[in-house]
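This part of the workshop introduces the protein records we will be handling. A record pairs a protein's sequence with a compact description of its fold. Comparing a sequence with its tokens is the quickest way to learn the format. To make this concrete, we reproduce a full record directly below:
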Amino acid sequence: TAADDLFSQFRGSDVDRSMPNRLIYGDNLLAIAALLAGDADHQSMRGKVDLIYIDPPFDSKADYRSKITLPGVTIEQKPTVIEQFAYSDTWSDGTASYLGMITPRLILMRELLSDSGSIFVHLDWHVVHYVKIALDEIFGKDNFRAEIIWKRTSAHADSSDLGSVHDTLLWVSKSSDFNWNQQYMPYEDDYVKQYYRYEDPDG
């Protein structure tokens, strides 16, 4: 699948495809704790996860819970208790309470990771620098692998400042012995014609 291709550099080809996929609906703090604990039907996942990608709230102070605007109509819906938490990016004590929410989750996610596992945390300018400090504390500064910049949009002139055009993915591994299988793309024909136009005696 596309996801297999995308993340193939973080694991080998020996994937156990007999393991069922699971979609868990609920607070991820409780879900992670349950994955760590296991139960009669599912073994503990502690130390068995090779890759975690999270796209948490960005501390944007926005509330995404109740209004959906479509052409000509606005739909208001009362959210469930889970949705009130999941789709509201407002925090009673500001950034301090945001960090109080995300830090214990990152600690538990570290416990899920295998020794060669990695986590990617997708954020924007609101709190990425604070979360980087939390990750350094939880995983160790030496396990920070890269800051990946994802350009969301081109520059635009609707702002009185430089504007925000990118998000950030922080890549952190659990240890220095992390999975990475370098991926290569084929050269384009023009590149081959320009740089590989000579032949040696072996062709």
Observations:
- The radius of gyration is 22 Å.
- The helical segments are 2-6, 28-37, 81-86, 95-112, 128-139, 189-195.
- The chain is about 30% helix and 20% strand.
